[in-house]
Write a structure and sequence with these properties.
339 residues; alpha/beta; 6-stranded mixed sheet; globular
Length: 339
Amino acid sequence: MHITHGFAGTVGNTPLIRLRSLSDATGCDILAKAEFLNPGGSVKDRAALGIINDAEKRGELTPGGTVVEGTAGNTGIGLAHVAQAKGYKTIIVIPDTQSIEKMQYLRALGAEVRAVPAKPYRDPDNYNHVAKRLAASIPGGFWANQFDNTANRDQHIKTTGPEIWRDTDGRIDGFVSVVGTGGTLAGVSTYLKSQNPKIRTVCADPHGAAMWSWIKRGNLDFNSGSSVTEGIGQGRVTANMADAPIDDAYRIADQPIVEMVYAMLHQEGLFLGASAALNLCGAYRLAKELGPGHVIVTILCDSGNRYVSRLFNQSWLKEKNLEPRSGNLSFLSDVFKDT
Ligand code: PMP
């Protein structure tokens, strides 16, 4: 029988979709890995599974244990699914600025949700630090620590990278990814470079984050902008990102990201979140830089269904001055600016 086993068996092996619109516009094959088709709906199902499997192996998570994590969304969803499947409890510590839908969703999955006041990372009451202390105070508590637990990156070295290599028959020339924890970019880049060091690896960064400066200039300067993207936009070098073999970085503004969300819906029938759209802006730019005939791969991190009240709400877009303008691919000249 050709079957899979439970939630864990259904994570990964996502399809690699050739995007006709962006491929035609560049003369390259622009291929996007459909991570929104993971059973919990995002690329973070992989990290959640990798972190829990690793913790079990190391004896840090034992029967009857509780998985604790500070997360604003996708990782918590992945952890809650995996924890249910394996018989653990889940406690999610979440900044109280996050939408009520996310908290309701996590509770529906069986997680205990503790909302805490939003504080910067340097503050001891930041949600990540609260999660760490909480895990230490609960018998059987395990802090997932997605940012600095390299079981996250390792899962991409073990699964996402090899799947991309296999599905392109090793013909990939470039890979582009956003950074939240950095697990996806660092893990996939590490694997691909181990197969062929000439593969070009690029970080696509939103405004208001520091990875662009870190990769281009070796410092952690933020640019003054901000972004409506969620789940990404890192300000420090996480353990997952440390020593990652990254060749270049692009900084891309929200306007082309929103245009890309709508272009993919209208031209490809794909309903995507903003981080996926940022990845596609980066993939287009890399294709233009490498020239026709190359194979570029990127990640469709999650679906637009997580952002209906924002990216697909015209009054919200208007308030942010981000209404899509072009309705075609003419906005793509804006992805070269690094402003
Ligand atoms: N996109 C979305 C929507 C996410 O939630 C995340 C993870 N926070 C990412 C992209 C980035 O993934 P990673 O943590 O592997 O860098």
